[in-house]
Structure formats: C-alpha cells, structure tokens
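Now for a chain:

_____
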Amino acid sequence: MSVLDGLEVGQVVAERTFSLSRDSLVRYAGASGDFNPIHYRDDVAASVGLPGVLAHGMLTMGFAVQPVIDWLDARGWVSDYQVRFTRPVVVDPQLGAVVTVTATVGALDDAGARIDLTASYDDQTVLGKAQVRVIAFA
C-alpha cells in the first residue's frame, strides 16, 4: 500500500510546532556557517531596520519540511521543495519564537502529490507558496 493511497485534496497529513531560542540560532549558525549578526545581535538587527534578531530563512525552511519527512517515514521521497520567504521570524531573547507548520494535500496526480505547507509565527504566515512534491515508493 502506498503512502498516497486514500489521500484527498485538502487533507491535513501533518502538523507540528517548533520552538526556537537564541541558542537554536547560534547552533544553526555554527552548523551552516551563516554568522550574519542579524541572527544573534539585537543592536545589529536594529541598526539595519529589523524588528529584532531573526531566525535564518534556511532554518525556517528546513524545519518546515520536517513534518512531511516524518509523515513519509521512508515510504516515499521529496522530489522538489520550494518556498518564498514572506515574513521574518523574530526570536525574542527571553521568550524565543514558536512556529506552527501544517502540511495539507494540495494536489494529487499519477506521479505523486503536492503537499502545501503553512508555517505561521505570531498568527502570521512566514512562508509563501511553500510546496513539497512527494513521490511514493512502490
């Protein structure tokens, strides 16, 4: 049986909440090599007109697809993944930030499925046109 069997357009296949802290940003900076100070220094973020320290876009993109990977559970693979960054995720020094991701079936065809992601922070969507193309293993 395929992971895609029985799916319907509009069906939610995964939901997850991610908590970010300033420590998360430092760890990601070390792993990615992106040490832009807007991701860890309030003074630098403010000096360039930002509302605060921002989570890395690639970090947000990376964890947004994770619920789909977990749902697939080695029963398929991601053949394409694209997003548009629409709003920043501001990570408060004490409270951090919480991002909620919902993965919904957007389209089905003979080749696989398009899963649409909604990533929200502070009641606003932070990724636009976030779409994952998945193909089931036979």
Observations:
- The mean pLDDT is 96.
- Residues 12-21+55-136 form a domain with the Thiol Ester Dehydrase; Chain A fold (CATH 3.10.129.10).
- Residues 57-72 form the longest helix (16 residues).
- The beta strands are 12-20, 76-85, 97-109, 112-121, 124-125, 127-136.
